[in-house]
What we know:
The complex is a heterodimer of chains A (about 800) and B (about 160). Chain A is of the alpha+beta class. Chain A has 21 helices and 29 strands.
Amino acid sequence: MTETTEAGTAQAGTARTPAIGSPVRRKEDDRLVTGQTTWTDNVALPGALHMGLVRSPIAHARITGIDTSAAKAMPGVVDVFTAADLGDDNVKIPCVWPVTDDIVMPDFHSLAVDKVRQVGDVVAVVLAQDKVTAEDAIENVVVDYDPLPAVVDMEAALADGSPILHEDKGTNQCYTMNFPCGDYEAAKAASDVVVSRRFINQRLIPVAMEPRAVACSPMGTSEEYTLWSATQVPHVLRVLLALSTGVPENQLRVIAPDVGGGFGSKLQMYREEALALVLARRLGRPVRWTETRSENMVATHHGRDQIQDVEIAATRDGTIKGLKVALTANMGAYLQIITPGIPLLGMFMYNGIYKMDAYDFSCTGVFTNTTPTDAYRGAGRPEATYAIERIVDELAAELGMDPIELRRKNWIAHEEFPYQTISGLTYDTGNYEAATEKALELFKYDELRAEQQRRRESNDLVQLGIGVSTFTEMCGLAPSRTLGALKYVAGGWENCTIRVLPLGKVELVTGTSPHGQGHVTSWSQIASDVLGVPVEDVEVIHGDTARSPYGMDTYGSRSLAVGGQAILRAGQKVVEKAKLIAAHQMEANPDDLEFVDGAFRVKGDPEKSTTIQAVAFEAFTAHNLPDGMEPTLSGESTVDPADFSFPHGTHLAAMEVDTETGKATLRSYVCVDDVGVVVNPLIVEGQVHGGIAQGVAQALYEGAVYDADGNLLTASMADYLLPTALDLPSFVTDRTVTPSTTHPLGTKGVGEAGTIASTPAIINGVVDALRPYGVNDVPMPASPEHVWRTLQAAKAGGAA
Amino acid sequence: MHRISVTVNGTTREGEVEARTLLVHWLRDSLGLAGTPIGCDTSNCGACTVLMDGRSVKSCSVLAVQADGSEVTTIQGLANGEWHPVQKAFKECHALQCGYCTPGMITAAVDLLGENPDPTEEEIRHGLEGNLCRCTGYHNIVKAVELAAGEMREAAK
Ligand code: FES
Ligand code: FES
């Protein structure tokens, strides 16, 4: 992708206002609001064959026969392949995060071999002249299944006698691991109060608005392939496809054109991508496929789905002593790219912002006859934050303390940073006091508490609950050595090249791969400040392995936190080189030059100056460069981050709960986030809004539901409840700014903050509303039915 | 096959379609108007929304033959020399992130403002209920529609 950014704040000749911090309107928007977009499905590929995937309607079965003859005989059908037909081309879908030495890693073939293990598993692939014929042909592939008992419940899957998904492995347990920090039993023994809960972090379906799509074209007669994909990770995808298919990496170009959202679900090497490539190779023709939404619901990975057994121990005065977390994590039927690692991304964060003496984490991963889980907005951290923020509220209730007061007593005070937490991370900076104070004021916390009291006293049918969430999260994935220590097979660096072209325009090549985040605009703002050029003079190139050869792509709120550092460093290298050229041409000592607003000036001699654009032209002609200096003006940097970054914030939700119908309504929502230095406030606010919406959706609306036979009951947008404009209020968002000290721009990351923070805020609010009735938890989503049943059970005297 | 004639973005377009062909597929695949995306197969998402005789319709739930004789405006035909005020407001208010819902959201908002030039926040949220956005949380979309409404009322004076 190539774009220029508009509406700069920089003006040549006048003192520039820094671009960083300015609400520059997005250049991305021009083509998006006019419909001039290049989604993968819009890529024109004359003569392309359309793939149709024959998917299993049964969750667990032996394949006893596949008859493709009727489909093959249809006019317009070019060929039909089964696993047996594909042979070596039936490549395995990789998992790159074997979290333990003895993890069970079953084969996951593009086309199912002998058995299907989830609804949506693929047993055959049709290639047809057009999409409609491909769809019709799918219906004519006859597959004989010998159904097997299915298991969707994690605990049932671990029990003796359960159907086994991967029989060669002899177990449904993928892995089990323990991460003890300090002596939890001693901490518990030193406590007066112990509160334990089982939280169900339900399964979610990411539902990016653009379904997945892939198109692959062999290039002429040579063995080269271009593959377009609606992916978040073109660079990662190229490596994995090359490894899996044997297509040499230098003969495979992966392009992520406009990508309509991902939220983790497009961080993957999917079987459809592998099939498009191997079939294009096999037939020597372009091959394409676009997912239907119904396919998307079963075939694109899901998120969350953990049972969280949580126990917190504290003294009577509210000092938290220890925390114990035992997870059971649903892997689904197979391991996708980082399926087993998702719980580990949360492992370090269950202790949240709190000080404690001990923390004990354990996790067991389980195979079930369901769609694989993997990264979904926040990936492990929303689960962790939900558990800690919920259990802290439960502890407050147990102790009869205000939930804010209890948090204050235990959080890391701002003067204690940098602070090494019990899980071993070092939080560089933070100011929980400031964010919380601001949030309480905006929320009118005391007034709402008074109203709550009135409603309780008057036995109002609609009760008011106040939900608190003081979250932190870990952004900027990730220091490569840390990833290595966690057995992740790749690094976490990011790359940037900045070129100042002969006429002074700038190309910024980034390895991040935006899919809605507005990087083109934000990255231009950073380059604008470093180089002193107008924002509109910067063109950002991304998402194409031929044009941006090195990158680790976009996920985990890493793009600014890590990619931003590479931009800064690449820009600094450009300035360093330009300075030497400028000094040479002005016959000055480089040390005597200052670089201000895009111009090199000899200190104390204002007459002598030149611009970075003029230097770029000199670097291009190369007529008069310092001896030994290479022509052209560019800088490249690959930055491995020194550490994670730790955004934090205080989110408050006012929930109205109708005690007759069980309907929980979000009345108002206030959040004060500290994401460090903000490059573009408009974009940051947008990320927060969208993040909150997804977190609220988990709390109130969404949940993937399987029946006991492994049929996904929420397999369309008609059945899976995505919030509409009517289901959400406007949000009050504000910020405090505590710059990160481990990231040179002071930035922290914002892509997932809202989602991580909001789910526990909402549920804490619902529980708070109903606490007088004896309610101490509500299953998510807190739908009217769930709330009503919980309330009835509580009124009948038992916890729900 | 059925012969249809539809005025699309101001130009008469004719074609042969199967009875089962959806309007959205005809627009995208036969006319190459790929600015109108498809987000679902259950008429829930609204990404495919276009204006048919001035009113917003989900073009995945209209058969191409049903559009015969009508006037259809897609996101690609909305700008008339300059951008429609709703398009401008979406950019100004950062009412889009990935932009996949945007063509449908904008056309739905144009219809909404045609019906109700001065909607409240509640009315805007009601009016856009049939259009899903996964990125923005709707906050800035509502603001953009409010801004566009103001601009359009101003221009109508
Ligand atoms: S494509 Fe979803 S409503 Fe038309
Ligand atoms: S902007 Fe991405 S779905 Fe609305």
